[in-house]
Design brief:
CATH superfamily of the largest domain: Spore Coat Polysaccharide Biosynthesis Protein SpsA, Chain A
Order of helices and strands: EEHEHEHEEHEEHEHEHHHHHH
Number of strands: 10
CATH architecture of the largest domain: Alpha-Beta Complex
CATH topology of the largest domain: Spore Coat Polysaccharide Biosynthesis Protein SpsA, Chain A
Strand content: 15-25%
Number of helices: 12
Shape: globular
Radius of gyration: 21 Å
Distance between the termini: 51 Å
Largest sheet: 10 strands, mixed
Oligomer: single chain
CATH class of the largest domain: Alpha Beta
């Protein structure tokens, strides 16, 4: 179902808001748009099969002018990746910004500051920062790898930093030219529960030519205990990571001379995942999971190229045991690590 009032003139920004059962929080999200001094924006809410009458709330809301709001509803839940893709397809702005339904823009000049940077640099990708404080401060994203606080960023430097870190993944800290996102034929071949942002951003980076950094807190990320995963860590998450990294390398590998940074990132992630898998599994079940990680071609390839270079000592041991085929020893070692770390927190 599509309900679109439509602005007469295409705006500078399309604010894309995927939403699921968000009636309790989306009002504050939209209010953060209403207070912006820059008025060249539209809001696109894509309702991912909510069951809390979000459609009625959007139809009756008076937080923002009706002509600024486009509302679309899916009848079946498909996850935030699909919801964002739908929002991109409905967007008319020159740039798209992704805003979660329980988050906000900071202050009244967030869009104005972005607009000034866009007018000055005309980038394909504008990066900014986020904070877990409603008024900003204590920035979440570390842009240190880029070596500057503001201004134009070399594509090669950005891609290299992106490949070797998860710090630059977030869609919420970027304003992207609309034509960079949601390309036809660019959909993942599987439904993802993690790494969706990294996959989407990598496609935009592959098509982008110019980048600009505005290292200021413009996005309020609302800490939400309910959204923090406490579910059992599944082995499929490791497989999803490998799938995404293969696609990322296919898209971006040609822009850098070495894959070593990505290999180290993946090995660090898998060492972390080994501990997450150990949280509620016995040795035998954990060993069965680790055996599948050890058989992953990217794991074998990464260990063969970079080994445990750059890994913390205890995680290097986990990786070496696994690479040597000592799966049960790796399982016992990882379980011991988890117990020790748990005891240290108490």
């Amino acid at each position: 179902m599509l309900v679109s009032q439509g602005m007469e003139q295409a705006p500078l920004f399309s604010i894309c808001i995927p939403a699921h059962n968000a009636t309790g929080v989306i009002g504050e999200c939209l209010a953060s748009l209403a207070r912006q001094s820059c008025e060249s924006w539209e809001a696109i809410v894509v309702d991912d099969a909510s069951t809390d009458s979000l459609d009625q709330w959007c139809a009756g809301q008076d937080v923002i002018c009706a002509e600024r709001l486009t509302y679309y509803r899916f009848d079946e839940n498909g996850g935030p990746f699909r919801a964002r893709r739908k929002a991109f397809s409905l967007a008319r702005g020159r740039y798209v910004i992704c805003l979660d339904s329980d988050d906000e823009l900071i202050g009244s000049d967030a869009l104005a500051l972005m607009a000034e940077a866009i007018e000055r640099e005309s980038p394909d990708v504008l990066m900014f920062n986020m904070s877990a404080c409603v008024d900003g401060g204590d920035s979440i994203v570390d842009y240190g790898a880029l070596g500057l606080a503001e201004g134009a960023v070399d594509k090669g430097a950005f891609v290299e930093a992106f490949l070797s870190s998860y710090a630059l993944n977030n869609l919420a800290t970027k304003a992207l030219r609309r034509e960079l996102v949601g390309a036809d034929g660019d959909e993942p071949k599987r439904r993802l529960k993690m790494c969706e942002d990294r996959l989407e951003v990598s496609g935009a980076l592959a098509r982008a030519e110019s980048f600009c950094l505005l290292d200021r807190d413009l996005y309020y990320y609302r800490p939400n205990e309910a959204s923090t995963t406490h579910a059992r860590f599944e082995l499929d998450y490791c497989d999803q990571q490998a799938y995404v990294e293969r696609v990322v390398w296919e898209r971006l590998g040609g822009a850098v001379g070495s894959r070593d940074g990505q290999y180290r990132l993946l090995l660090s992630a898998w060492a972390h995942d080994m501990e997450a898998l150990a949280q509620d599994r016995g040795v035998a079940e954990l060993a069965a999971c680790l055996e599948q990680i050890a058989a992953e071609p990217l794991f074998v390839e990464a260990m063969g190229v970079v080994g445990t270079d750059g890994q913390r000592a205890e995680r290097a041991t986990s990786l070496r045991l696994l690479a040597a085929g000592r799966v049960r020893a790796a399982a016992r070692w990882v379980r011991a690590l988890v117990r020790l770390k748990g005891a240290a927190k108490r």
